[in-house]
């Protein structure tokens, strides 16, 4: 992985466009019941075992490879072009002994149509594709009233995945169990001291989700209700998860959101110091720990996304990796533009044991975290003095 500078709130967290026009209230109750029923059903496939054939190149013969990426954001032309430049016509998926799989840790596209085009392109390029939803995937502002709320759109995305052969539930690839975990963030995830020396914009001003997503009345970003709702979607996969745990030598779980606050820079390092309040879930960390509870050392990995910070570190016996494509303007700040190392190969008949260099995880692998220190880093202080 390559170094990645902190992301300015103006890049991905800024004032929003108007919220979409709601659907007619005459159908609201019926559609809500249907949406929740379909959403839970779509999240509960049975585990499947794949061995695959027809690999991408002779060097990969008889090999199971798993690549990971997050935050594709293919509403940007440059990002869709990146997807389309990936080689076509391999990846396995038949009856042989090798397969190339891709794990997509959320934030594929803002519209359902772009999402479907992106996932279809990825299915042409990999023998298996796995997906969990991110926050941008559930935005409604450009759907022209197509969905009553973001849960109905979630159902539509999961239906599209089913039609395209994209996995949204547990599956075994060779000796590796891959388990997608649904999640959402909650403010109480943030346990570290706030920065009060500068005026920090409110979450509602800085984070588009508060306006671009729409939720039924009993679910909201203001408390833990959304995080609990998404976490409980995983209960429908529990039998499949247990089967994967019994049958796999190694396990990769993945989510869009962040499972531990240590996987994000301290607030004083961030252009938007309140970022930790909208990135992660304690329920997610507890759930993935129960999945990896009996996993041997070096056999447990969790992939996440959302913050656009490259990351590769081991915390309490589990390896945590983020490999975001991110926005085009963010890639320009990376040494190799992200084109040479993405998607990141995390597994080749076993997890790649090498911890890859990434600016922030390298920093915290060498330096103690100081959450009580709220003195702004020089680049953050300069930013606030200029704009606030």
From TrEMBL:
Compositionally biased region (Low complexity): 1-13
Recorded GO MF terms: hydrolase activity
Region (Disordered): 1-38
One Pfam family of this chain: Metallophos
Residue intervals of the Calcineurin-like phosphoesterase domain: 65-308
Compositionally biased region (Basic residues): 28-38
Signal peptide boundaries: none
Name the record gives this protein: Calcineurin-like phosphoesterase domain-containing protein
């Amino acid at each position: 992985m390559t170094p990645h500078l902190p992301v300015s709130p103006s890049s991905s967290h800024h004032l929003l466009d108007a919220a979409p026009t709601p659907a007619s209230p005459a159908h609201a109750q019926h559609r809500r019941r249907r949406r929740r029923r379909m959403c839970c059903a779509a999240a509960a496939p049975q585990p499947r075992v794949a061995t695959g054939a027809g690999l991408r190149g002779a060097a990969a013969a008889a090999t199971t490879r798993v690549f990971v990426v997050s935050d594709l954001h293919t509403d940007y032309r440059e990002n869709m072009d990146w997807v389309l430049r990936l080689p076509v016509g391999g990846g396995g998926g038949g009856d042989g002994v090798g397969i190339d799989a891709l794990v997509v840790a959320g934030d594929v596209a803002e519209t359902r149509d772009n999402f479907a085009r992106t996932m279809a392109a990825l299915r042409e390029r990999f023998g298996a594709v796995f997906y969990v939803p991110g926050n941008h995937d559930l935005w409604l502002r450009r759907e022209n009233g197509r969905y009553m709320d973001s849960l109905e759109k979630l159902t539509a995305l999961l239906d599209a995945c089913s039609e395209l052969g994209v996995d949204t539930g547990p599956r075994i690839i060779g000796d590796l169990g891959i388990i997608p975990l649904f999640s959402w963030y909650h403010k109480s995830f943030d346990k570290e001291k706030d920065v009060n020396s500068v005026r920090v914009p409110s979450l509602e001003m800085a984070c588009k989700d508060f306006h671009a997503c729409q939720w039924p009345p009993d679910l909201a970003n203001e408390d833990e209700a959304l995080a609990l709702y998404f976490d409980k979607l995983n209960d429908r996969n529990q039998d499949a998860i247990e089967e994967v745990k019994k049958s796999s030598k190694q396990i990769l779980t993945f989510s869009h959101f962040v499972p531990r606050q240590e996987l994000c820079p301290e607030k004083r390092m961030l252009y938007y110091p309140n970022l930790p309040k909208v990135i992660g879930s304690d329920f997610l960390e507890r759930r993935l720990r129960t999945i990896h509870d009996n996993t041997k050392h070096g056999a447990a990995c969790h992939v996440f996304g959302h913050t656009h910070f490259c990351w590769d570190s081991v915390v309490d016996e589990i390896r945590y990796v983020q490999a975001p494509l991110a926005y085009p303007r963010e890639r320009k700040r990376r040494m190799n533009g992200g084109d040479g190392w993405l998607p990141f190969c995390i597994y080749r008949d076993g997890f790649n044991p090498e911890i890859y260099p990434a600016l922030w995880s390298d920093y915290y692998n060498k330096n103690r975290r100081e959450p009580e220190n709220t003195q702004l880093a020089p680049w953050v202080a300069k930013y606030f003095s200029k704009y606030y």
